Amino acid sequence: MRPISNILAEPLCQFFNSLIKEKTVPEDLAFARTVLLYKSGDPANIANYRPISLLSTLYKVLTKLITRRLEEYACRNAILPPEQAGFRRNFSTVDHIQTITTLLEKSYEFNVSIYFMFIDLKKAFDSVELPALWDAMESFGFDQGLIKLAQLLHANGRAAARIGDDWAEFQVERGVRQGDSLSPLLFNVVLQYGLNNVPWQGRGLRLNGRLLSYLAYADDVVLIANNVTELTEMATALSDSASSIGLEINFAKTKWLHNQRGSRNSEEQIVLCGETIEKVEEFIYLGQLISCPRNPVKEIRRRIHIGRAIYFKYRTFLRAPRVAIQLKRKLVNYCILPAVLYGCETWIWTKQVAACLRTAERRLERAIIRVRLGDKANSRSIRQRTGLKDWIHSALRRKSKYAQNYLRSPLMSHGPE
User: Fold this and answer.
1) Side-chain-side CA neighbours of residue 372 (13 Å)
2) How confident is the model at residue 375 (pLDDT cuts 50, 70, 90)?
3) DSSP 3-state helix, strand, coil percentages of the chain (rounded to 5)?
4) Any idea where the Reverse transcriptase domain is (predicted)?
5) CB neighbour class for 72 (10 Å; exposed up to 12, middle 13-18, buried from 19)
């Protein structure tokens, strides 16, 4: 559609305006083909697949327009607080990782007791109750016309899934569609509606004169408390509020962490709905290892291991003598490097960290141009041949850029100093 967008703009505008005016949506427009993407675990277990909706281009254009209008209203009225960073412009996973790691560092340094609970919600996007979503939008004061249009898109939401060689159609009665540009915002709105109903008053960690009770990146919610009793009360209240919008906490995957120097109370337990929540000393949060005390080298080595796994996945291509070095360079710079440097903005920079990155990059460079250690080729000549981005320089540049942006952002109003 993009090459003929100038031609289609006017008739599409009239068509979409007629939908808004008449408050009707053709069934075929909201129809989706659902494909299941395998995540991990037992391939025979349907729970290990993620349903993705394949929607028409017209539907995507319409929902993109609706999303922009809803986002403008949400931003103008501060419906989503800084604690919610998921699927939002000028926010990223790094913001919350930085907040969590800084809290862990400072609390450990000054021997301040702090408790975290990493909440896992079962099939969050697929479980949202649609009536709760409409109640949330109305309570936040969204335009009634847009609410009605969103309701029609979901009311007429039919989907089809492949079973063998055939497609089986069914009506979608709950949840928001994964693959729809409107779904992330709708999910954030209904989740925030649930979070706002939790009695946070007086609970959480006091920072810069205000309480920080939780952080959320879409459905990745972290509770922050001063003691185990407060954390249990917050988690119980969140569980009750989440159930009112159709969400359920997965107690088996929910973990809690306590950062404290010296002796630890091993008898502390958290029990929610009869389920004992596991206590951990490290946790993978938004793709980064969170541990107490913090071990930055362990996280860097883990990132390097992830990068090495990508290398072995494309090893045949990267080591092929006939493949142009320019193609190998693109694969490394666009696939391996981002995986290795993910979250580098929050790293504690030391000589050991730099040495780990330097060694890993040199090993990779030697592998892709098939140079052995015994060949006595120096690092400068190897770099001239590969032309790869310098990992250390890239990491430091990203740290510097993030620090500058962070100091200018609204996050400074609630982030730890």
Assistant:
1) 2
2) confident
3) 50, 20, 30
4) 18-277
5) exposed
